[in-house]
Design a protein that fits this description.
The complex is a heterotrimer of chains A (about 270), B (about 300) and C (about 230).
Chain A: H1 9-20, E1 36-40, E2 48-54, E3 57-68, E4 79-85, H2 101-116, E5 126-128, E6 132-144, H3 149-162, E7 165-173, E8 178-187, E9 195-202, E10 205-208, H4 212-217, E11 220-226, E12 232-238, H5 245-269
Parallel strand pairs in A: 4-6
Antiparallel strand pairs in A: 1-2, 2-3, 3-6, 5-6, 7-8, 9-10, 9-11, 11-12
Chain B: E1 28-32, E2 40-46, E3 49-60, E4 73-80, H1 95-111, E5 120-130, H2 135-149, E6 159-166, E7 169-171, H3 176-181, E8 184-191, E9 196-200, E10 203-204, H4 208-245, H5 249-255
Parallel strand pairs in B: 4-5
Antiparallel strand pairs in B: 1-2, 2-3, 3-5, 6-7, 6-8, 8-9, 8-10
Chain C: E1 3-4, E2 11-12, E3 17-20, E4 29-32, E5 35-38, E6 42-46, E7 51-55, E8 67-75, E9 79-83, E10 90-93, H1 109-112, E11 118-125, E12 133-135, E13 142-143, E14 148-151, H2 157-161, H3 166-175, E15 177-181, E16 186-191, H4 194-209, H5 216-225
Parallel strand pairs in C: 10-12
Antiparallel strand pairs in C: 1-3, 2-6, 3-5, 4-5, 6-7, 8-9, 8-11, 9-10, 11-12, 11-13, 14-16, 15-16
Classes of the chains: A alpha+beta (about 270), B alpha+beta (about 300), C alpha+beta (about 230).
Chain lengths: ~270, ~300, ~230
């Protein structure tokens, strides 16, 4: 992201030079993730929340559950909606103002992974068909950008959803679909545990979990979403560069492998 | 915001709903360096409030025509996260957020030595992760610390708290319910070392006596916060020192002659050294910096300190 | 008459009372009446005949004569805009770029320095009302090739260099690297291999982190002599 950033020649060459020796600027292996930390229940006023750090990248996800009306074409299902904010608090290359295309892409790719892997059975969020459903807002705020916001965002959203508690409801009137929220809450049921893994291409090399400097010089990236049954559930190819089909096939396997360790981190952080 | 006073916010023993007395601040924690990309940053937790402050600058202002020729512009961006309150807040900036941003910027401008950086901007971002009453004050407390952490020169640190009236009694540091149901709220930004009030608002109904009492109470609260801000800012450096002295280095060091004796800074002429913040190391050739000694106060801009700072 | 209120080498913050009376003072100190206060988070230094507060963090302010490492961010017809990590962008005009006279009709600025180039340059002039002017037409200045550039707090550059260059020369010798330190906090490092570079960078980062402590030279020597690998990058 950070369109304003100008990559220095030295930086670019140095990253290249290291990759030729199978090394990275922070000393990691090509497919090694940075240290992951997940802290859930960060914000008590949210129905669910989590702060995730990938190295120096930091994102907070908060879940708000609101009673609302379903879309007319899907009267029997609840709604999830994902937004992301790249606040200038998190990087000198983010700007104030309405969501940039980068913020929208981040939100949509995160949403896609969660939606397509059926993390939540949306029909269970329906209270009165056509009249009253739960709307889950997944709101992401980047708190520090050091690259790979995609994978951090999915982790944060998942950890927040997995710790979300929704108010129980009392039906006041069946006819008018009148509902009262109770103090008592119940945990949101999570059916699948999706994680995303992003690979970046720099010259002839492919690396996992790029930091900001690596992302600045990378030619192309692909973000894969995987569920716990090793299905590929979402994908996004980004940036100007291109891939050969063969490289994509090796990369999807590489990323799938990494997704398993990443999921372990997620499962460790959330209550059973 | 003033409530009707019918909700019981304080019991016969003087205990408030969360167990505090009327003189108590909420439990407060301040941490610096939480946003790595920022030039300075802080996270404050004050009761249930959680706020992150990040400072970028001084830096170039875009568009350039907004730059001030004689001083730096201080810009504040106070934003509430959608999930920071009980109902989801709309992500678009509200009029309230804009007003608070402005009054915070005004308060901070009063302590920053803005004339040292003409034509630049110092941007202060405040992200409220959880709001529970008094967020503008907690934001100001955190922003002051973040500015100092960024190395921005300041006359002092602002500490801020909102006290007010609950069941007609003056009480320190109102939380959200007390703010909603109480009968008055008085946010104060105050710098104890300067004895200056830089942010001051009020809503509700106060007698003159309550007004005085409330102001005095807030100043007491601000002084307590000031100690916490000081500790937060010094912590990092004293920790590193403690770490280092574990190696017994400090003990060794004490026996050594003090560096400053080796080369004496010479006052160039009778002109008194003035507070130019730039004492200047000059790299003649970085391999051979001419080491006079660390710094010498300079009378004239042209006089330069040679580098070398051991 | 005058009284110093703070112990030497103590960490102070903006607004801390440092002394009262008639005291000579340097950077990081402001006076109100007969009282002297710190204006920054820093290291208090009582130099005997004056007091000052050394910054521990903060943006680099250009000073004429400073050697700095800049990044070319804009190329014009007869000049370049260079990011020197300060609140003000520096201007390099073609007349100050090369020893050869620049002819705007025949010569192309892009062929001299292009966007993204890192250059070793010197501050010619700066007074805060106008952006700093820099030059590269002196020996040893110009485009940096190879190696890598790291950034540290500009305030700690004198510590990295050390008295008469002792610190930096020791790091160079013990890590077999070439190092150029810019007063703006940017440091160029090139070694024969990656490990040497990482070792040099590790020690520079350690100097930055512990700049406000004493006995640093000994600790760095020790760290490099026992061939300890540093994971900090």
């Amino acid at each position: 992201m950070g369109d304003k950033y100008i990559i220095s020649e030295i930086e670019k060459n140095h990253i290249q030079f290291l990759l030729e020796q199978k090394k990275r600027i922070d000393g990691r292996d090509l497919s090694k993730f940075r240290e992951v930390s997940i802290e859930t229940d960060y914000v008590q006023k949210a129905e669910g929340s989590a702060v995730v750090s990938l190295g120096d990248t930091k994102i907070i996800a908060g879940i708000k559950a609101i009673l609302g009306t379903p879309f007319p074409d899907t009267p029997n299902t609840g709604v999830i909606t994902t937004s992301a904010e790249l606040s200038p608090l998190a990087s000198s290359y983010f700007e104030s103002g309405p969501p940039s295309e980068h913020a929208i892409e981040l939100a949509r790719v995160t949403d896609r992974a969660i939606r397509e892997s059926h993390v939540i059975d949306l029909s269970k969020l329906c209270l009165f068909p056509g009249k009253s459903v739960w709307i889950l807002f997944i709101d992401l705020y980047v708190l520090n950008d050091d690259g790979n916001l995609f994978d951090a965002a999915v982790l944060a959203a998942m950890a927040a959803l997995a710790t979300t508690k929704i108010p129980k409801v009392k039906i006041i009137s069946e006819e008018n679909a009148e509902i009262e929220k109770l103090e008592e809450t119940e945990s949101l049921k999570i059916d699948h545990y999706v994680v995303s893994v992003t690979t970046n291409k720099i010259g002839n090399y492919n690396i996992i979990d790029s930091n900001r400097k690596e992302e600045n010089v990378s030619d192309a990236r692909i973000t894969f979403g995987f569920d716990e049954e090793d299905h590929i559930v979402s994908m996004q190819k980004g940036k100007l560069g291109v891939y050969s089909p063969d490289v994509i096939k090796t990369q999807v396997r590489e990323c799938l492998n990494v997704s398993k360790t990443l999921r372990k981190e997620l499962m460790k952080a959330i209550p059973k | 915001m003033a409530g009707d006073g019918t909700v019981k916010l304080i019991d016969e023993k003087g205990k408030r709903l969360d167990g505090r007395t009327v003189n108590d601040l909420r439990p407060t924690e301040i941490k610096i360096g939480v946003v790595k990309n920022a030039d300075g940053s802080a996270e404050i937790r004050m009761g249930k409030n959680i706020i992150i402050a990040a400072v970028y600058g001084p830096r170039e202002l875009h568009p350039k025509h907004r730059a001030l020729p004689h001083r730096a512009l201080i810009q504040c961006f106070y934003r509430m996260s959608t999930f920071s309150v009980n109902d989801r807040k709309s992500p678009a900036p509200s009029r309230r957020e804009k007003e608070i941003s402005m009054i915070l910027a005004n308060a901070l401008t009063s302590v920053v030595l803005t004339e040292k950086y003409p034509r630049t901007t110092v941007d202060v971002y405040l992200q409220v992760l959880q709001a529970d009453g008094g967020t503008r004050c907690a934001s100001l407390t955190a922003a002051s610390v973040a500015l100092a952490d960024a190395g921005v020169p300041m006359r002092g640190i602002i500490s801020s708290v909102a006290s007010g009236l609950i069941n007609d009694k003056v009480a320190q540091d109102l939380d959200d319910i007390e703010d909603q149901k109480g009968s008055g709220d008085m946010p104060l930004g105050y710098c104890p070392t300067l004895n200056e009030v830089s942010l001051f608002q009020l809503d509700g109904v106060f007698t003159l006596e309550q007004f005085d009492e409330c102001l005095d109470l807030s100043i007491e609260g601000a002084k307590k916060l000031h100690t916490m801000q000081t500790d937060a800012l010094k912590q990092k450096y004293t920790d590193i020192r403690a770490e280092v002295s574990d190696d017994d280095e400090l003990a060794k060091e004490k026996v050594k002659p003090v560096v400053k004796d080796e080369t004496k800074p010479v006052a160039k002429d009778e002109t008194k050294p003035v507070a130019k913040d730039e004492t200047k190391p000059v790299a003649k050739d970085e391999t051979k910096p001419v080491a006079k000694d660390e710094t010498k106060p300079v009378a004239k801009d042209e006089t330069k300190e040679k580098s070398g700072d051991e | 008459m005058s009284e110093i209120k703070v112990k030497n080498h103590e960490i102070v913050i903006p607004g801390d009372l440092l002394g009262e009376g008639t005291i000579k003072y340097g950077e990081g100190v402001i006076r109100r009446g007969n009282s002297y206060f710190s204006s920054i988070v820093g290291l208090f230094q009582d130099k005997g005949d004056f007091i000052q507060v050394k910054a521990l963090k903060g943006k680099y302010l250009p000073r004429p004569g400073d050697l700095v490492i800049g990044k070319v961010v804009e190329v014009g017809l007869t000049n370049w805009i260079v990011d020197v990590g300060s609140p003000y962008s520096a201007v390099l005009s073609a007349n100050n770029a090369t020893e050869k006279r620049f002819d705007p009709v025949k010569d192309d600025t892009r062929r001299i320095f292009n966007i993204g180039d890192m250059i070793l340059t010197k501050i010619m002039s700066f007074d805060r009302t106008r952006d700093p002017q820099i030059l590269t037409n002196e020996r040893g200045l110009g485009k940096l090739r190879g190696g890598r550039v790291i950034e540290i707090e500009a305030a700690h550059i004198p510590r990295v260099i050390g008295k008469k260059g002792t610190m930096i020369n020791m790091v160079k010798r013990l890590t077999r690297t070439q190092i150029i330190t810019g007063q703006n906090g940017r440091i160029w490092v090139q070694g024969k291999n990656v490990d040497d570079e990482l070792k040099a960078i590790g020690s520079i980062k350690k100097i930055e982190k512990e700049a406000h402590t004493q006995g640093l030279t000994d600790r760095i020597r020790e760290m490099l002599s026992i061939n300890q690998t540093e994971e900090e990058v």
